[in-house]
Write a structure and sequence with these properties.
single chain; about 350 residues; alpha/beta; Rossmann fold; Helicase, Ruva Protein, domain 3; Zinc Finger, Delta Prime, domain 3; five-stranded parallel β-sheet; 17 helices; about 10% strand
């Protein structure tokens, strides 16, 4: 199991085949996959009866001693082949690297799962190399914005549900890359589907997620991409009337991601469809359309200037060099700069 670039699916498939590692280190910025893997191990290694005596979950605080975890790990299972020890919130441990001593000689009858969120364990220290020799090290990375539509479609496909393209993009742009929140909203949509229907559309998203079909980040993004001045300013006016539901910093972050990707596309050594998709790490051709459209409306120099303006706008919205300008003033200035 100790191989480079292991995915959460690799781990799940190995566990399904009952190919267990003595130690799993699950770490990274994206907690969604850490939770899914640890939950799968917790639910599928032991039977319900075996779990009563042989499965322990430790929630770590700064006071948790690594020695206590090692003592649990060195226990033998009762009337079962394995015991499962899941260590949650391991990022709180002050002396996590002390687990390296156990990792150098782990108990074969213990399956130790270490969940380290909101960051990664320093690979230069002893723990990671020690675990890599005997077990599994998995890094759960944040998905790039361009990967979210595919994630949404794949997630729903496993539930035998499809989603319209625009509804998918509405969800990706409005909910964002917090996968736990995103899957929660998708589950809500699945439950809200009328009997006999298995396709999510814009109306369902608008009704159940609170995203307006006409005035949302996706529509703003589309207006900017197509340089639709009238529509962009119409959406801006709506945002000004509902600042809590449409915080300006969210719009700035969305536009920064858009133009940063467009800038990346300009640097692609291969401007063909396949070349751009590979360079931007996109899996569906329709995901590329927005970026190629934006490239027609904004050249590389303008794109670079827009990125600079977005950085400046973000700082001003946070109080740096804003003077007496309101958020609305700052956003109107930004939109004029982008669209003219």
């Amino acid at each position: 199991m100790a191989k480079a670039n292991i995915t959460h699916r690799d781990i799940v498939e190995a566990v399904r085949r009952q190919e267990y590692a003595p130690i799993y280190l699950l770490m990274g910025e994206e907690s969604y996959y850490i939770d899914r893997v640890s939950e799968y191990i917790a639910e599928n290694v032991l039977t319900k009866e075996e779990q009563d005596f042989n499965q322990t979950t430790i929630y770590c605080t700064r006071e948790t001693a690594v020695g206590d975890i090692v003592n649990y790990a060195r226990r033998y299972p009762m009337m079962a082949k394995y015991q499962v020890l899941i260590v949650k919130e391991a990022q709180n441990l002050l002396k996590l690297d002390e687990l390296a001593v156990y990792a150098q000689n782990p108990l074969e009858t213990t399956i130790l799962v270490i969940c380290y969120k909101n960051g990664t364990v320093d690979r230069r220290k002893k723990l990671v190399p020690a675990i890599e020799k005997v077990g599994v090290v998995f890094e759960s990375k944040k998905l790039k914005d361009g990967m979210l539509p595919q994630f949404i479609m794949d997630y729903l496909r496993r539930k035998q549900v499809s989603i319209e393209e625009r509804a998918c993009l509405m969800m990706a742009e409005s909910v964002g890359a917090d996968l736990n929140r995103l899957t929660g909203e998708l589950d809500k949509l699945v439950l809200a589907l009328p009997t006999g229907k298995n396709r999510i559309d814009e109306d369902l998203v608008e009704k159940n997620v609170g995203i307006s079909k006409e005035f949302n980040m996706w529509e703003l993004r589309a207006a900017i991409i197509n340089k639709d001045v009238l529509k962009a300013n119409k959406i801006l006016f709506h945002m000004e009337q509902n600042p809590k539901a449409n915080p300006p910093v969210m719009a700035v972050a969305m536009l920064f991601n858009l133009f940063a990707t467009v800038m990346q596309a300009f640097y692609s050594p291969d401007r063909s469809e396949q070349g751009l998709m590979a360079h931007l790490e996109l899996r569906q051709s329709w995901q590329l359309r927005d970026y190629t459209t934006a490239m027609r409306h904004y050249n590389a120099m303008k794109t670079m200037k827009i990125i600079g303006k977005l950085r400046e706008t973000d700082a001003r919205l946070k109080g740096i060099n804003r003077g007496n300008l309101t958020d609305a003033d700052i956003m109107h200035e930004l939109f004029f700069f982008i669209l003219h």
